[in-house]
Amino acid sequence: MLREAVPAVDERDDLIAALRADIRRMRTEILDANRARQDAEAAYEEGTRALSMLRQQLSPLYRALRAVFGELDAAGIVDASMSAPASAPVGVSTEPRVAAVWDSWKSKLGGQCAKVIDVLLTHGEMNTTQLAIAVGTRRQNIPNLIYKLNQAGLINKNGGRFALKAL
Hints:
Arc Repressor Mutant, subunit A, 2 domains
């Protein structure tokens, strides 16, 4: 009896077809991922442009309000809704003699050092950023002002916060 010849099935053909299908699927996934990345980059750039435009529009108002609030702080004006009383900070005397000594230091040092003294007399201990806002100067200027006050022996340092020494 003769056997009929059964065509041999090469399993490698099935494997090649499966691999080609995987490659097509992966290429599609890569294209989709690239499109999603490009969309995300475009959205990020659009958001950055929008925030930049918002900053540009609000900057004059911000600078004006910062100046106004700096003046209010320097004048000792306190928000009526704040729970703390508008009294001298802890450790700062309100005696006329002590006030005269601080006035003397302000006239000796002048300029922004005098403003720092006023701000610290009004608010007590503050960090560099708070001082810069209250004095109305750039944050980068504060270390030099603190150095001058420290050289005069007028500053207590507590970590990143500064206060006037009690007289």
